[in-house]
Amino acid sequence: MSDSPVSPVKLRPEILALPPYKQGTSIEGGFKLSSNENPFPPLPGVLEAVEKASASLNRYPNAAAPDLTAKLAERFGVSADEVIIGAGSVSLLVQLVQAAAGAGDEVVYSWRSFEAYPWMPTLTGAVSVKVPNTDDHRHDLPAMLDAITDRTRLIIVCSPNNPTGTIVTQTEFEEFMDAVPSDLLVILDEAYAEFVTDEDAVDGAALLGHYPNLVVLRTFSKAYGLAGLRVGYGIGPAAILQAARTTAIPLGITDQAQHAAVVSLGDDIQLNERVVDIAERRDALWAALIDQGWDAPKPQGNFIWLPTGEHTAHAAEVYAENGIVVRAFHPEGVRISIGEHESVEKLIAVSSKLVATLSDGPSTHPIA
C-alpha cells in the first residue's frame, strides 16, 4: 500500500501536506520510552470507578463533567465557568485555536515544541509562526514578542517544553504577559507541570485571575497516569472558555474518564510520592548522561532530550536494537521518557556507547 494514496475527491492541499500525528511505538520484550507515559498504574480506586461507570455504556456521557469541574474549581479557587474539560489537553488546544484563529490569522509558538502545534492552525486556515528555540533549547520569549503582528490571534507557551524539557521562568513569563497585547490570547501549556522541581519555573495556577487573556492547560495523562482515558482541563476567563466549548466535538469526554479523574484528585499523597520518584529518577539519569558527555538540557518534565542532530535516525535505531524505543524528532534529537526502574541501567549503557562514538570524529561519522 502506498504511503501517500491519491484521493479520488477534492481535499484541502494544506491538509494533505501535513504529516499525521505519529504515536509512539512499542517493542516486544523491551522498554517503550517514546510516549511520556507514566510507568505507574492508575491510582488506587481508579479502576473500580471506571468499572462502575462502564455499567452504563449504553448511555451518553454527561458532557458537562459537573463533578470533575467542581473539584477543579475548588482546587484552583475559581468558578465552575472558568474551568473547561476536554479529551486531553490537546483537544482543548484545538478548540481554542478554532475559537481564536481563522483564515489568514497567525498562531505563534516556539519550535521545536509539541509536534501537534503545527497542524492545529492549518485546520482553521490560520498560519503557523514558528519562533526558533534558543541555543540552550528554551523558549525565546523576546523573539516571540517580536513575531506578533496585527494578524496574530494566539500564542502558545509550553513549559516544561515538550520535547526539550526546559522551562520558562515565572519572571520571564510575567514580563512576557505584561508586554503582550491584552486582547491577544495566550495559552500556557503545562502538561508536565507536576514534575517540575525548579523553583523559578512558571506556575500557571499562581497567575489565574491576573491576566484577562491567559488560559492554563493541564492534563491527567501524565502525572496521574490516565493517558488511556484522555482527559485534560483548562482554566481561564469564562468568556474565552465558553467560545472554546462551542468548538468542541459533542460528548467527547467519557464518564469513565471523568470519574477516574475525580478519584485521582482525591489521592494527592500517593500522587506526589510517584511524581517525586519519577523526578528523582529523571535527575539521576540526566546526571549520568551529562557525565558521559552529553550536552542535554536540564529536564523538568518526565523525559530527557538528547540533541543528536543529523544522527537522530541512527540513534533511534541503535536504541531500538537494544530494546529501547525512543521518540525521534528529525533532524534535531531524541526524546526519552522516564520509564520503569529496570530501563535505566540499559538506557545509560546504550547512551554511553552512542555519545562515545559521536565524539570520536567528524560529524559525518555515525554515532554507533
UniProtKB/TrEMBL annotation:
NCBIfam families: PRK03321.1. This is Aromatic amino acid aminotransferase. It catalyses: an aromatic L-alpha-amino acid + 2-oxoglutarate = an aromatic oxo-acid + L-glutamate. It comes from Agreia pratensis. The modification N6-(pyridoxal phosphate)lysine is found at K222. Homodimer. Belongs to the class-II pyridoxal-phosphate-dependent aminotransferase family. The keyword Lipoprotein does not apply. The keyword Methyltransferase does not apply. GO terms for molecular function: aromatic-amino-acid transaminase activity; histidinol-phosphate transaminase activity; pyridoxal phosphate binding. Aminotransferase that catalyzes the conversion of aromatic amino acids and 2-oxoglutarate into corresponding aromatic oxo acids and L-glutamate. Its EC number is 2.6.1.57. Residues 31-348 form the Aminotransferase class I/classII large domain. Its cofactor is pyridoxal 5'-phosphate. Keywords: Aminotransferase, Pyridoxal phosphate, Transferase. One of its GO terms (biological process) is L-histidine biosynthetic process. Pfam families: Aminotran_1_2.
